[in-house]
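Re-run requested by the PI after the first attempt was lost when the workstation crashed. Everything re-entered from the original request form. Ligand of interest: adenosine-5'-diphosphate.
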Amino acid sequence: MGKQYVIALDQGTTSSRAVLIDEQGQMLDVAQREFPQIYPSPGWVEHNPQDILLSQIGSLTELITRNGLKAQDIAAIGIDNQRETTLVWDRVTGEPIANAIVWQCRRTARLVEELCGDPDVARTIQEKTGLLPDAYFSASKIRWLLDNVDGARERAEAGDLIFGTVDTWLVWVLTGGKVHATDVTNASRTMLFNIHEGTWDPWLLDLFDIPASMMPEVRPSSGDFGTTSYLGLPVGIPIAGVAGDQQAALFGQCCFEAGEAKNTYGTGCFLLLHTGAEACDSKNSLVTTIAASAPGTGHLEYALEGSVFMAGATIQWLRDELGLLSNAADSEAMAMSEMDTGGVYLVPAFTGLGAPYWKPDARGTIVGMTRGTNRNHIVRAALESMAYQIADLVKAMEADSGAPLSLLNVDGGASRNNFLMQFQSDVLGCELHRPQNPETTALGAAYLAGLAVGFWKDTDALKALRSSDDVFTPKMSRERAEQLLNGWSDAVRKTVS
Ligand code: ADP
């Protein structure tokens, strides 16, 4: 019997999972461990590096034991991970110098303003990295650790400390400290990586005062990241794929070519459009990021990315704060019990509005209510707000990329909502494809690893695995869709004025 499986390690913000995948791309089993979120001060978010590690290794061990797997059964391991989260540890002992600073953490917002506030500096950063300067990205988090942990700067200058995003930390530990590497997609979220040249950028390292000796080697997403060498795990399994979670999902959705896009409807939304070999500059506050490539591509590939802060979270708010429904899935039937929202728009700008508006100070509103407005109208307006926000992002992407979107691949918890998917297709005026297997992120990590070791031959073989998507096609007249979109724009204007 040859090697029959690939394992994806899906290291998320709140849990770590290990997923067993066969040659047909079927998910045979999943083991999952949650781990604690640490909030030391308002706006600060940390993870204990050992919690990340133990939850990930725990889920992997559980999966291996439950399925009676040996090293010879597993062709490769692929890793996808929460992006931007920052760790620094000792090159020799492996001891982290502090907790990981999580992507959501705002502690470096002021520092980013100080270092990147100058418009020329901000522009240069965007040109080099594709990112708009923000505390999300790893650069300012590394700087914070060097400035605030006792002795860190001296140790870093002496070459004793190394940096990594979560993928790098996992690869380093799983290979017994042999491989200190990241992949191009994770590198592209640090704000230290020149996405055109594919190298750490000396000017950026200098700006953030980070020694180059700390930085991991940057490798293609599909390829060699060493082999497992960790007590208690089967030895010698190749780690052969690494990508940030959103880029892994893009790959898992088989968006391999320019013009192909996916949107994930979770707590927030993440929309990524593959732009091929061209790094498309955004004039609409989107970011340019590196997409994961199949082996042998020979050049970097890029994507435009936009995100929505409040998507499924708006439904949680209706459930937990307003008590309008008891279960997120009930929103579908509630929305469909009305013909429309009766003119109500809910703009969920609870934490400001992201791209393309970029109004951090905007706040949520509900407009257009009458005496006849009921809870179903409000729930429907909340679902529609997800679709409108995506329509705004798609419009911005079309303007930046110069090409209309003809098809959108969807995934994530809220993509199960058929009302939402039909409405999304209607307002976008394009087809939506929802795969049977919604676990596109883990699938992407598995695909990257499997391609690297020849478990799957090429991307055509991966496309062939995808069967019988649910397809949503526009049913609404364009005139009606435009009317609704205009109503949304009016509501947004009221929110920001
Ligand atoms: P994440 O990975 O961001 O935690 P998930 O992909 O698990 O999120 O999706 C969960 C989110 O989707 C929650 O915010 C929930 O309110 C929303 N959600 C889940 N199912 C539905 C549904 N059927 N209709 C609308 N929203 C839903």
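Saved to the shared folder this time. The chain has a mean pLDDT of 95.
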